[in-house]
Amino acid sequence: MAAPISKNDVVRELIRGIQYDVRLYDELYKLLLKQQHCYLSFDEQSMQAITDKLQPMLDTLHKNAEHRTKLLGYLGLEQNKTGMNRLLGALPGKLRTQAGQQWHMLETRVQSCQQQNQLNGQLSASFNEMLQQFDHDSSNSYSSSKLMELR
Predict the structure, then answer these.
(1) Could you report how far apart the first and last alpha carbons of the chain are, in Å?
(2) What are the distances in angstroms from CA 39 to CA 15, 59, 82, 117, 136?
(3) Is Oxidoreductase set as a keyword in this record (predicted)?
(4) Burial class (CB in 10 A: 0-12, 13-18, 19+), 96
(5) What tens digit of pLDDT does each residue of 62-87 get?
(6) If we measure between CA atoms, which residue out of 95, 71, 98, 97 comes closest to residue 84?
(7) What value does the mean pLDDT of the chain take?
(8) Which among 56, 101, 74 is positioned nearest to 10, based on CA atoms?
(9) Which pLDDT band, with edges at 50, 70 and 90, does 42 fall under?
């Protein structure tokens, strides 16, 4: 029979998870910037490669957030930002400062990624709209068949 997990172990796991996610969000942000560059340079092949990397990373971040939520519940705290703030406030001095900084960094990284993703979504919509317009215009303009008629 496995020994029960101590609350100190749960807190350590929460803090390690936050640190890991900060690094993962840094990687995500870099990929989102590359994705933006692909949209702007019409590099569809590289865009697909980036998209293939993004989904597993997003899945991991989602699972990590769910795990953090469960750990807060295990500690008897609200399973939201309020619960995390209560936990951080209850930590001893130096650990409270370090963990609070890490949590703030995570929140900042999440916001940066959300903003970049929103921008990329707008670029994607513009990119697709332009492609559709190009397809539509090419069917209504001098196509190669019309040029052949001139011979």
Answers:
(1) 87
(2) 36, 23, 38, 12, 20
(3) no
(4) middle
(5) 999 999 999 999 999 999 999 999 99
(6) 71
(7) 88
(8) 74
(9) confident
